[in-house]
Amino acid sequence: MTHNLKIATRKAERKSCRLFGKVKYLNKAVEARIVNLSLTGVALDIGGPLHAATGSRVRVEAEGLGSLEGTIRWLHSGRIGVQFDPNSNASAQVASYFRFFHQDLKPTLSR
Q1: Sorting pLDDT into bands at 50, 70 and 90, what band is 10?
Q2: Which of 31, 28, 33 minimizes the C-alpha distance to 44?
Q3: Helix (H) or strand (E) run with residue 92 in it
């Protein structure tokens, strides 16, 4: 199967997570759940409307991760993808989370 959509994807390995936090854009905060996480970005399910466009600067705050700043790369059906700033300490914070807090998730439903 060929992929002709020309969508830029994360090159770093993603790990599934179940972390809860907030996404902050300008002066509005929306509850969110981190779906997967890598050293370069994060995918989140958001719990309400976030009036931001692709390219908008946001802050993701979650316990165990701290505050991570980045840019929205995509939005679709209540889910957003955020790429972390390469010059921030986000990758160090994520690496620390994986080292000390992350537990591998097992599927809750069997097939």
Answers
A1: low
A2: 33
A3: helix 90-100
Contact 74, 43 (CB under 8 A): no
Per-residue pLDDT, 60: 94
86: burial class by Cβ within 10 Å (0-12, 13-18, 19+)? Answer: exposed
Residue range 71-91, pLDDT digits in tens? 999 999 899 999 998 877 887
Look up residue 100 and give its DSSP letter: H
For residue 103 the two structure tokens come to 């537990």
> What is the rounded distance in angstroms from the CA atom of residue 50 to the CA atom of residue 75?
10
d(CA 45, CA 50): 11
Helix (H, G, I), strand (E, B) or coil at 90: helix
Please tell me the distance from the alpha carbon of residue 46 to that of residue 79, in angstroms, as a whole number: 6
Domains and CATH numbers, the chain: 15-100 (2.40.10.220)
